[in-house]
Amino acid sequence: MATATVAILSPGEMGAGIARLLRAYNFRIITSNSGRSSYTTDRAAACHIEFVSSDVDLINQADIILSVVPPSESLPTARRVGYAYTYVARGNKPPLYFIDLNATSPGLAERIEEVFARPGIGGTGVRFVDGAILGGPPEFVQTPENPGGAWRKPRIVVSGPERLVGEAGQRLEEALGLKWVGDRVGQASGLKMCFASLTKGLNGLAIQSFTTAANLSLLPELKEEISAYFPPLLDFLEKSVPATPPKAYRCVREMEEIADTHSQTGFSRAVFSGIAEVYRGVAQDDELGKERFDRRSRGTTVEDFAECIREGLSRKEEENNRANAAAAGKEWMQQPPGRAVERMLVD
Ligand SMILES: NC(=O)c1ccc[n+]([C@@H]2O[C@H](COP(=O)([O-])OP(=O)(O)OC[C@H]3O[C@@H](n4cnc5c(N)ncnc54)[C@H](OP(=O)(O)O)[C@@H]3O)[C@@H](O)[C@H]2O)c1
User: What confidence tens digit (pLDDT) does each residue in 15-66 have?
Assistant: First the structure.
């Protein structure tokens, strides 16, 4: 018998991992696949997640909703649930919890909280919890030391005035290993922003550094120097840089959220806005932009990753040069004949 129902919007790489973990803890998992790609729908089916026909159905059946979407979709997802909630009569059921687990700035977390504070939209019936995930998706790992296996879980931090009460909430806390970091909405998100500044932020810097070193034919030498001074840093970057392509698209907004977070302290947005552009370049790269978690072919080593970016940048430069030359030629052709001859003599 399932102990409680958790809705996951949506089972992407992280949401699917959480679904598998919660099923192992005897939760029933539901989702709504309306508007979702076949990629997400197939993955949800593979994780034995049940589909419901509408958001109203989802709210009717769920004890807890987890929002696990790209950061750009956090607020729209909360609004969508808040809107559907107005069509639901939950009767005597325990209160519904909505936990946002996305990489958002504290400011955006507060805006999401407001969605559920407005009577008539989320009403006062939905209890909002700010949350964030540090680390990769939950995974069941078997090792020679532990052949029976154990769950490797990310660290999940939560904050806000609404504690998870009731059986479903207590069991969720235990299954996910939730860690409360404060009584204010925005604190869990803020912790994630500061943490990701040093992980994904550093990863963005490494992408530039490795690519420029490759362009100078110095990538092996750069790796040797990092290894001589900070061996664990090279280990980290050799794993994190090749893991970037499938998630680069959502890292763009994550860097912008980080820029927002630091700007609230008084820092310029420039550093992390710049790193957002590095991730945009990866997401839009002809080769790396096609990579998916379950289908990797390019950029699986820092060498190949740097090569893809370097080739992409040089193709872009050639295209720009051609476009500029074409524009200059057009301008030249459009000049009155006398002026064109004058310019030709001067040039
Ligand atoms: N993966 C990780 O290692 C990791 C680690 C820490 C934190 N997180 C956080 O977890 C969240 C999700 O990351 P992820 O890795 O699972 O991303 P992902 O693999 O790209 O999956 C994103 C999921 O969200 C769905 N989605 C997109 N737009 C949506 C919308 N408007 N409404 C509802 N669902 C929508 C996608 O569906 P479609 O297929 O239809 O686009 C997909 O199922 C992010 O906020 C991220 O910061 C992830």
Answer: 999 999 999 999 999 999 999 999 999 999 999 999 999 999 999 999 999 9
- In the chain, ranges of CATH 1.10.1040.10 domains: 186-347
From the CB of 114, is ligand 1 less than 6 Å away? Answer: no
Residues 163-185: tens digit of each pLDDT: 999 999 999 999 999 999 999 99
Say which residue the tokens 């532990």 belong to: 146
73 CA to middle of ligand 1, Å? Answer: 9
What is the topology classification, in CATH, of domain 5-183?
Answer: Rossmann fold (3.40.50)
The CATH code belonging to domain 186-347 is 1.10.1040.10
Q: What is the pLDDT of residues 108-135, one digit of tens each?
A: 999 999 999 876 554 568 999 999 999 9
Q: What are phi and psi of 307, to 5 degrees?
A: -65, -45
Angle between helices 219-229 and 302-334 (to 10 degrees): 130
CA angle 72, 74, 79 (to 5 degrees): 120
